[in-house]
Design goal:
This protein has 118 residues and is mainly β. Helix content is 0%, strand content 52%. It has no helices and 11 strands. The strands form 2 sheets. Strands 2, 4, 5, 6, 9, 10 and 11 form a 7-stranded mixed β-sheet that branches. It has a 4-stranded antiparallel β-sheet with strand order 1-3-8-7, with no helix packed on it. It is globular. The N and C termini lie far apart (37 Å). 34% of the residues are buried.
Length: 118
């Protein structure tokens, strides 16, 4: 499966952005999808995931209540709605897919930059 992320940009603290990740090349509904992020000088970290069957969602504690992950299987797209953005959310955001349901990132998109100014 190929993944193409988009929607990043520069936003002030407290603002919102919606990231999109379009999938192609395989049956999208057979993949669990996730968003990860990597800030400068830090390791890549899990942000949010959505299961392939039940649509159950999972979030890192740092974004719980502010970010929402969703998927549209008809459009082969997963979204990350980010509200109440903070400067510490600044990072490159990556979408990832896997069949295991463990959000281990077997396939990766190219990343989209999110910058939150204070």
């Amino acid at each position: 499966v190929q993944l193409q992320a988009s929607g990043g940009g520069l936003v002030q603290a407290g603002g919102s952005l919606r990231l999109s990740c379009a999938a192609s090349g395989d049956t999208f509904s057979s993949y669990s999808m996730a968003w990860f992020r990597q800030a400068p000088g830090k390791e890549r970290e899990f942000v949010a995931g959505i299961s392939r069957i039940s649509g159950s969602t999972y979030y890192a504690d740092s974004v719980k209540g502010r970010f929402t992950i969703s998927r549209d299987n008809a459009k082969n797209t997963v979204y990350l709605q980010m509200n109440g953005l903070k400067p510490e959310d600044t990072a490159v955001y990556y979408c990832a897919a896997d069949r295991s349901g463990l959000f281990r990132g077997d396939y990766w998109g190219q990343g989209t930059q999110v910058t939150v100014s204070s």
